[in-house]
Specification:
The protein has 227 residues and is mainly α. It has one domain. Helices cover 49% and strands 6% of the residues. The chain has a two-stranded antiparallel sheet. The chain has a two-stranded antiparallel ribbon with strand order 3-4. The N terminus is likely disordered.
Length: 227
């Protein structure tokens, strides 16, 4: 039951479903370019870190990226209206520069901003981008910092679903801790400790773990304590 709750929270962000571990032909929605794409292998474990990054080192798997335009296929089907809005954007110098240096989930965040998607969807894309660069301290600091700023910019009462409100609070606190903002992280988790929405034992176990890590000034990745 506890695992299913966190799984539901993880599904708050949009992902693309692929056949596992296959080489497939992808078609670029922008220009019709066809190219080969290696789909994700089967996950070896469903465990995740406190920021929801899968423990399986193969993940997060990058999205298919069109070789010529740099367009990122972050969903299985793009409505024509959305493709039309992105048609010119992906040709801009801004996007083309970004496509050369940033990860596919970061590019997804740029595209979602251009489309006027919800701040929550944009924040989640940035969070996933931070997972992609977890082994690169400088890039992780940039992406995680942008993700934290994006989550903090969303008023809690603007999120209608409780799972989104819980996710925002837990992830924001975790990102603050990972970035070494221990005073901010402690303040966040103390509020969560007293929150009715996070009163379930599973969430309180995470909060207490976070408070111990914060007080030890530990910014390292830690797994969700399922047991």
């Amino acid at each position: 039951m506890r695992r299913s709750v966190m799984t539901a929270l993880l599904l708050a962000g949009a992902t693309v479903a692929h056949a596992q571990g296959a080489t497939v032909e992808a078609v670029c929605p922008i220009d019709g370019e066809r190219f080969k794409y290696q789909t994700a292998p089967q996950r070896t474990t469903n465990e995740t870190y406190l920021d929801q990054r899968p423990v399986d080192p193969a993940f997060p798997w990058p999205y298919a990226k069109c070789p010529t335009s740099g367009f990122v296929i972050y969903r299985s089907n793009f409505p024509r209206s959305r493709v039309a809005k992105l048609q010119e954007f992906v040709k801009t110098d801004e996007y083309q520069r970004a496509a050369k240096i940033h990860t596919t989930h970061y590019l997804e965040a740029l595209m979602r901003r251009q489309l006027g998607d919800s701040p929550y969807a944009i924040a989640y894309a940035l969070l996933q981008a931070s997972w992609e660069v977890s082994a690169d301290p400088a890039r992780y600091k940039q992406y995680a910092g942008e993700a934290l700023a994006a989550y903090d910019a969303i008023p809690l009462d603007a999120l209608p679903e409780i799972r989104e409100r819980i996710f925002k609070q837990l992830i924001s606190g975790e990102l603050a801790r990972r970035l070494g903002a221990f005073d901010s992280a402690e303040e966040r988790f103390l509020k969560m400790r007293d929150s009715a929405e996070l009163s379930k034992p599973f969430f309180q176990k995470i909060v207490e773990l976070q408070l111990r890590l914060v007080r030890a000034k530990d910014s390292s990745p830690q797994r969700i304590p399922y047991k």
